[in-house]
Design goal:
By secondary structure, this protein is mainly α. It contains three helices and two strands, in the order ααβαβ. A two-stranded parallel ribbon has the order 1-2. InterPro entries: Phage_phiTE_015-like (IPR058601).
Length: 87
Amino acid sequence: MTNIDTIRAEFERTNARDHRREPPKGNNYTDPLVQADWESFQKGWEASRNSMCVKNPFELIIGDPDGQWAHEVAEKSLRAQGFTVVG
C-alpha cells in the first residue's frame, strides 16, 4: 500500500458517515465539497507525519561501544513510540 493509498483509506474511514459521497474518479471526487475535504485531509495527514520525524539525540561514533549502545537504544525507543528516526 502506497502513502496515497494509506491516506485515502484513512480519509474514507474518517468520512464514512457522509452518505452523499461517490467513489473517487482517479484522484478526484465528483462532489467539490468532498474534493476540498480530501485535499485538506491529505495536507494535514502529510504535515502530521512530517512532524513525527525526529533526529536521534545520540551521535553514532564508530569505535565507541557506549555511544553505539546509546544510539541503538534511543532509536529503538523512538521507533517504538511511532516516530520516524532520521540521522
